[in-house]
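Cont'd.
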Amino acid sequence: MQLAVWTYEGPPHVGAMRVATAMEKLHYVLHAPQGDTYADLLFTMIERRSKRPPVTYTTFEARDLGKDTAQIFQDAAREAVARFNPQAIIVGASCTAELIQDDPAGLSQAMNLPCPVIPLELPSYQRKENWGAAETFYQIVRNLADKSVMREPREGRSARANILGPTALGFRHRDDLVEIHKILGTLGVEVNLVAPLGATPQDIARIGAADFNIVLYPEIADEVSRWLEKTFDQPAVRTVPIGAGATRSFIADVAELAGADPTPALGDTSLRLPWWSRSVDSTYLTSKRVFIFGDATHAVAAARIAREELGFEVCGLGCYSREFAREVRAEAARCGIEALITDDHLAVEDAIAAVAPELVLGTQMERHIAKRLGIPCAVISAPVHVQDFPARHSPQMGFEGANVIFDTWVHPLVMGLEEHLLTMFRDDFEFADEHGASHLAAHSPRKIADAVVFEAPLVDIPLPALAEAGASGWTDEAERELKKIPFFVRGKARRNTEAFAAAEGRSAIDLETLYDAKAHYAR
Amino acid sequence: MSPLAILDGCTAERAPVNPSAFEAARPVLRERGQREVFCGLTGIIWLHRKMQDAFFLVVGSRTCAHLLQSAAGVMIFAEPRFATAIMEERDLAGMVDAQDELDRVVTRLLERRPDIRTLFLVGSCPSEVIKLDLAKAAQRLGAVHMPRVRILNYSGSGIETTFTQGEDACLAALVPVMPASAPDAARELLIVGSLPDIVEDQFLRLFAQLGITKVGVLPARNARDLPSIGAHTRYLLAQPFLAETAIALESRGATRIEALFPFGVEGTSDWLRAAAREFGIDEALVEKVIAPGRERARFALSKLRPQLAGKRISFLPDSQLEVPLARFLQDELGMELVEVGTPYLHRAHLSLELDRFGANVRVSEGQHLERQLDRVRADRPDIIVCGLGLANPLEGEGLTTKWAIELVFSPIHGFDQAADLAELFARPLRRRDMLKV
């Protein structure tokens, strides 16, 4: 047993959901108990999708466990196919259904459903979300790829590529795709297929028609690309274009496979990171000590950008996915450090505390660790919360991605500098403590020690002034009650109540007044 | 005595509701199929805030841990008092091994967190299916760690519990360890169901003003500081989802005070009056004590009524709060109830509430999600109360929703929260009218 408060990855069936939700006209019949539908809200809330994920859950209960869970599964599968009319379905079990051993594969194959059925074996007690996504994508491609569809001879046509890897709930997958399309357009490369995101099962059938594959996210698409290499003899571009240098290598790799001239794509004038980084304003970034943690792909890319494009010193590097630990270890060796491969957030917290970096680049979890330690931080990898599925265009890949990364990483540092100045000058009247700090204030509440420092001068204030402040009219009981109101609305409640008491001509603010005012201001 | 032998008007005041008679009067649509609901583990999210000395250790899978972190949002980082012991392949190999592993995890946890005084081992679907005996584990570990830590057990699994039923199972596990009250004790009042502290304090003040001095609450803010219980205990349910807890309380001699649930002016008045009646409080005093709060709530609600009156509302099953909330919205704000869905309908505890429903209200128990959504699309209510997995997709179809979980996390009981409760339903409608994009 592993003791965990927080996990970097969900169970493997959530990975399968990410693939199913990314695709069109595919349905997932998931043998699962009541409650596993919680995963729907990752898609409807965090990614803000306006459609339900295409998943039917069997939701069996304790009383079904004796005999009829298999029947429940078959009924659910039949109803789902009739209602949603998918081009194909994937079937599998969540962790609990895995234990009751109903065999969704056998059950659904015995049903003669009018569409292809792709069974998934996702061992919930060994594997995790990314593995589940990769395995699901691989099974879908293996089952649906039409082996008779091979690429035609190259003469007289543009090169064609498959873009593999983007899924639902992927960190910036939507916008990365825009950048990749832009690069391929400049190179004159046609896109044969993007998958899983936006692909239908019928689209997948045509996967063999491409000349080569682009593996955008190895965690999801590496396995598929190796199978395609074997089956269709399609080479793959494995350079992940995150960062200015990596994007240049990516363009060169694609141009080579496509037989295209890379010059126009390399000359894209929208790339501003190199100049921004060379401008004197960035000098203070030199050798800033940075700690990097995330999925392997993003962590490795971030380490290269940090070293070569921003002039940071990488003092910590790690990832939570064991499957890709080798790449991270190699990159850590180039930084002269040892890689941290763990899915235990407490180990990450200890490592961060031990090296005391000046900037943390990580997931949502590292953001919170950094907040607690008072260190500036930027997010570079899933898992992420709702604010990292932004409305605006914010890729990580390509030249625009490099621009986004420069802004995103430097922003907390500049803010950190502002905060430092605020602290230095906090005794100046313009920098009163009440003004608070910048971005960290909301997250790292001011230490008690600070508060004491600032309350000290109050002793010198003449007594009458203090008495007056106390005579605002609040009874002790009402004051205590006010403290039970959440801090973020307490100030408003206090102002409203006082305004109400003044308007009503009440001298004392007691519980009655507090609640009378609350009723008065109710909309 | 046969029913015929009872004279008119002499029927026992608290006669149990006969389910078949009820069914005849109001058909309930019962459905089975896909359910879009949380499991009982989710109760931990608010229970651990309420019981400040307790820790909740889920014995489950990665899915359980993922559910808790998804439901807890950012709260998970504030040194939470819950965690998951994630079962792995080797735990499934043999039972003895799993018990040893559990001992190891619990010992490590208690070393790390010396502030824990009550530890709940919370069962999940995987632990229930492999029949990991957590009750025995709790007993064994309890013997080792008492008196410093009391170790209890309940199940929050999805195969057995829906959302708020997790609280029911947790409180039912506390009842056997409540101290017995003295046989000659005076009548005591027990408020059952976790309430936000501010609401609990309001109620305690009101009971004090009524002259009811011995009032216990379950759960207590400190899980080691439980109120006593016995034949002199009269308990008042603050929440409608406490079926198991009620049975456990009655097995220890306590008697339920039947009342509406304390939502809105009428619900809160009835709830307080029922307790006062039970304790023989003078009616004039009751009137005097509840009048200020009641008038305030009436005044506050009067401003929201024009926004909500005549609006049609449907509830999808979630928390079992649906029936009393629907009664409040219908009776006090003039909303029209289209469908009131609930995961589980406790006919006896809700009989007073259901009696208030108009004849055309469709009551449904359980869920077949796709069919229920078909009904929602056909009904096109003005507002739909549903979970977060459905809210945005329904908004995407042009319907207006109110996400249900907020109703469990926000202070909504009592006079002074009545308008806040109404505002939760008025806000999405007002927003829909405000937006020009």
